[in-house]
Amino acid sequence: VPDLLHAPLLLALLAAGALAAASFDRALVATDAGRPVRPALAEPLQDAARLLVQRRRTTVAPDALLWRVSAGSLLVVAALMLAVVPLGGRPLLDIGVSVVWFNAMDVLLWAVFWLLGWGPNSAYALVGGYRFLAQALAYELPLMFAVTAPAVLAGSLDVAAVVAAQQGLWNVVVVPVAFVVFLLGVLGFSAVGPFAHPAAPDLAGGLLAELSGIDRLLVLAGRYALLVAGAAFSVPLFLGGGAGPVLPDAAWVLVKTAAVLALLLVVRRRLPVLRGDRLLELGFLVLLPLTLLQLLVPSLLVVGSAR
Amino acid sequence: VELTRRLLRYGYQRPHVLLVEAPGAASVRYAAEQVLDERAWKQAASAADGDVLLVCGRAGPDLQEQVDRAWEQMPGPRARATARQPDDVARELDAARDRLHDLGEQRADAGTRPPAHDDETPPAGGEHQAAGHDMGDHDMGGHDMDGHDMGSMAMPGGLGMATTGPDRDGLALDVLHVQLGPVLPHWPAGLLAELSVQGDVVTAASLRQLDGWSRDAGDDRVQRLDRAAAVLALAGAERHARRTRRARDATLPAHELADLHRAVARDRVLRWSLARLPAVGADDLWTQLLGLLSDGTAAPVGLDAAAHALVGAELTAVRLALAAAPSLSAPDREDARA
Known about the structure:
The complex is a heterodimer of chains A (307) and B (338). Chain A has helices spanning 3-33, 37-41, 43-53, 64-82, 98-118, 123-154, 159-164, 171-174, 176-189, 213-238, 249-270, 276-306. With 307 residues, chain A is mostly helical. Chain A starts with a helix and ends with a helix. The longest helix of chain B is centred in the C-terminal third of the chain and has 15 residues, at 220-234. In chain B, the strands form 3 sheets. Chain B has a 4-stranded parallel β-sheet, sandwiched between helices. Helices cover 41% and strands 15% of the residues of chain B. Chains A and B meet through helix 1, helix 3, helix 4 and helix 6 of A and helix 1, helix 7, helix 9 and helix 12 of B.
């Protein structure tokens, strides 16, 4: 990809991916409800039009600056995550420590979601912010160790090196548990599905409870964009990057991203919302030990091959 | 203007509807939920998410006051409607959607809302620190003490600050006073809960029924399935919830109710998520939910007893417990029972 086009292309892919994810999601809901699928596909566009026309409301004494900034930040963070995903060749943001970069971006979301809860000066949103921090504690450490496994196998924190190290055998085969935990982490930092507690119906929408108009649109789109970015990053990390027959590398990256995204969306619709204390149980008693054990596999492989 | 008109028509094909149920009008709400499910319209989770405010049944004066507040908090374009009978619902919703598409009417409505005050949650008034074009430049200084007993400090927005109190671990922690209901999805009709919360743990609770008591004459089985559907929806188990609503509305064949019960009972993730939660009028929420889906009967629970059961629970648990609770009764009835 020519350098000049790389950034606009990534942004276009992110927008298209988020829209496609939303359409697919609505189609899943329609199928479940026994309604025709075709009209459901247009629903995200209609929702976007609705939110563009809608008045932006405010609350009493909000922290307007932090509230608005955090609403727009989800999309920015998603774009920054996507910037380190190579579409075949080198990634846009070629910094040599892209695995750490991705992790840093996902930790940035702690602040973004917290401010989204803090901003409107509303109890529902504030509790939503608390809930996000609680569940972040549950998914973050397992997610970090899951991301570490491919890096250990490649002996590098550079995502391009991780792709190169998967010649012949994809990481998903070597460290399957890390792959599953990574996908759970993606659901976690996007606050959807079982991790939707911060924006759950019992809190009248929690983080979303006071949002309207363009701010709501940015947050809803931002959560889909985070799913897209997470799915895209799983491809170089676990699925061999652009490796595949016939099609060019970039096409394989897109196909694999779409497949992972579809999987995330299906899983999301099948599972109930899990409360923070349950997620902490899951995170610390199950996922963390599992990922640590999983990390033993690449570590032993690396030590073994060094002998 | 033409673009706005088109966006209005395109964007508001499926408005989000904020449902308010007046006590005694459950059947109207069932009809409304059914229409929304069929049309793929969405039930609004909060006033900020609502385009149409639909009051089901006849709201008494206290509930009406709360409904008016919710109306003030809706962003707009907006429309309000009242359905007194189940048969009115579809017609009222159609009319409300047409009003949303009417640019002239929406402009006129927007004109009635002063820029600095739009959509503020009452108590309104006060000095806004918040910058931004949407706040306008109205100077509200000196206004902020009106009618509020705030002590000597000027509070942002005329609101009281959080106070501190000892928490369950013996630490001093902020206490917020939060009102839940009555304009809230999956919430008992006309119920108002005043809670003190630390984080999301309830430290004190009092419950009040607005406009006195009015019993739903509905079928017991229908009411049970409705409560089960509310619990499932709150737990984020939307597939089970939709099926349960269809069972409630009798569009699901009777033998499928047994399947439904089995499907919920076998959902291990849901069970894990709902296990060990407090319940009102039962020992445990999960058992209570399965009872609602079969044929358990439960005696009404007094308001005070219900409020007592909520102390120490988290907000999620409070919402779930009240959604699953058998019908609540006046405190004096409870005394008579005892």
